[in-house]
Amino acid sequence: MMGLPLAFTEPLLLIGLVSLPVLWWLLRVMPPRPRRIEFPPTRLLFDIAPREETPSRTPWWLTALRLLAAALVIFAAAGPIWNPQVGAADSKAPLMIMLDDGWSAASHWDVRIRAADELIANAENDRRAIALVPLSEPNRDITLMPAGAARVALRQLAPKPYSIDRVETLAAVDRFLKATGDCEIAWLSDGVDTGRGEDFVAGLGKTVGDRSLTIFEGGTSSPLALVAAENAAAKMTVKVLRTDSGIAMGTVRALDQKASPIGEARYTFGPQDKETDAAFDLPVELRNDITRLEISGERSAGAVQLLDKRWRRRAIGIVSGATSETAQPLLAPTFYLTRALAPFADVRLADKGSPQQGITQFLDQKLPMIILADVGTIAPELRERLNAWVDQGGVLVRFAGPRLAQAEDDLVPVKLRKGGRTLGGSLTWEKPQHLATFAADGPFAGVAVPKDVTVSRQVLAEPDAVLATKSWASLEDGTPLVTGEHRGKGLVSLFHVSADMRWSDLPMSGTFVEMLRRVVDMSGYTSKPGPGVASEATTETVAPLHILDGFGAFGPPPATAKPLPADYRDRATSDHPPGFYGPAEGPLAVNTLASADRIAALNTASLRARHATYTNAEPQDLRGWLLSTALALFLVDAIIVAVLGGGIAALLRRRAAPAMIVLGLLFASLSPAPSHADSAADDFAMKATSQTRLAYVVTGNADVDSIVRAGMSGLTLFLAQRTALEAGDPVGIDPARDELAFFPLIYWPIVPGAPKPPQDAINKIDAYMKQGGTVLFDTRDAIEAPPGANGAAQTPGMQTLREILSSLDVPELEPVPREHVLTKTFYLLRDFPGRFVTGQTWVETLPRDEDEDSAQRPARGGDGVSPIIITSNDLAGAWAVRPDGQAMLPVTGGDTRQREFAYRAGANIVMYTLTGNYKADQVHAPALIERLGQ
Which burial class, exposed, middle or buried, applies to 40 when counting CB atoms under 10 A from its CB (0-12, 13-18, 19+)? Predict the structure, then answer.
């Protein structure tokens, strides 16, 4: 009705609204004029002023009130229904329900099931048979069934975790319609075209013909999907897809293998954006632990991106045998290798020393990939370690050079000739060779071959029967440029040219970067070498381990899931649903959508069909509400008439005392209950003063508040275990409402973009700090600070803190000096780490002994304690523990004892706020004793 989800069961009764003007006229008509008779004594009454007057006609507003009540009665009689059931067109023919059940239907699956249930109920009332057609099952027989059986079949359906091909179902639908004849069709669409949508719409139009077709679409938000996750040098990014328009925003969560949260990233869609990026600014160690990305609040397999070793930013060690590393660093092999690998890997150069020491260093660090640039002879015991490392999954890449050309080594994929081959020299007829086209089945398939790259020298391989199978790239004359071999679970590869410009200009080309990227990708999953790598004749497959259902939840593999090749990189299918395949220690991830996939809105405008929208609420009968409102209006009308007619006044005069009692009881019952604010304030004060308690500011962000609450509880437990302080449970406070004087320390986590507190709260904080309290502001964003001397002041959290401090009387601040009492109140500390270690801790600047104004500075009420402490190291995140005693969030520093030092920093801060300058006096005790002795 006029675009509203409103319908009437008896719409003809609305004709009664036409009678409202007649009713208006009847209510406004004047009664017949009374007969006038002259009575002389009446003149004496004219001088008496009447106390009450009766209007000669009904007031217009009272008439409007009565008409409104009458209109409500008419509407109620017509049977109004809010969110009415929207069925297909009225028909007696059988009903066929086509249901989209791919991943894109999962986010609002309950809405589609409810719509299908309503269609089945309507068909049952008309005693029609029903056929249920899930479009993901083209081989399913389509048969008519009664409503009860259709409901059972409907409840057995579940969304599939992959993209469905609707076109494949058209053949079965066509056969059914030809066998059935007249049939009514309802298509419950998800509105998403994941491929061949136009073909399905055109085919459906031909198949349906002149039959009645109703398409259900709209009324729900667009499904969201994740694709193209990339672990870049500075951050991990993932694309968020949608099909509709308008400004929207949300959050992508990152989880590790145990489903523990690692981080969150915000994304924002512009008015016309169909895709956007979410970026995780996390340390590479944390990013490498991410195995699952998911959109918060979106329940579908498409909103999940699974990551395996291929998405890890591999740490690659480079060992060079050249002596030009220090003499000519810009011409050294490590320079070209570092520049080529830096965009997609973390490069580690061996410490200055022999190549043997560098190899040992990286083997001890258990790096997944090592590059040896012109490293010749390797000690036998070290060669054995390298072989064992490769067998366990390591990837060894070697580059030729003068040293390798003269060495005898079995850590190469092919047997080499001693010496080398020189092309284009003064003593040879051969010219420098260009690169040949890469094989279509090799690891470099699809990489563009530059025409300007030439090779002037190379090491040659001894010809044998398997040389062709081990060659990944060749020159135009057929000699190998890159060879590779699968050994155990690892790989050994050899570039037959040097990694610098001496033998070839390949290191200066973009092809060199892409070739290295392909090799690094092979180190992500090494149970199979990948295309083009010499290995056994049989193709290794991996069995399903954990499979996603349509809602994006992990479950056991279904019986229909089949093993897949270990180098599988395509999107999920019905045979290979999304999930993890292979061994638990190194599984292969298969996702619903491939990196290049995109989604679009499904265009059904070419179909001749009725269009209906999904409803998110149950139908609601409005008759009770309308009749109740009409009755209330009639009651109000009666009271108004009584007041205007003087009835209530007469009643009050005759029954004054009882009326006063009744009115008093009425007002007493209507008056609000006494507020419990005073008692609540008393309870808060008793709780805060019964024990020493730490406090934290409740930000309103549920995730931040839960972490801070756990962090303050963890610090309280640490204090009880290590110090004499047995503090009570921490208390969350609202500075605008709660009393602050009960707490020696208030921890305030800064949420970027949060609104500034009201001025009353700012004033209370200012008074609290001036009266001896300490507020610890933590922006929790040290890791987000851009590089530079002033980078820490440019983070969003610091900008939000600046807005808060702009209204506070903050003293001059300085980084905590080495001699500050805060560094030795309980533990001897040099810095104050939290989850992060790069942020500085700021306190009030204290007067120095040589300061001329130190004697004139006023003494503070805080006994020498700074009223404000500012940090960005996320102290509460490091203190936070789960109920089982495990840390809630990881720390980012390299020191394994960082969390212990974070607890010690918290202990020092608490003791500092409790004891004031007591420790400072203790530190100066020897000087005081010496002075007293004099």
Answer: exposed
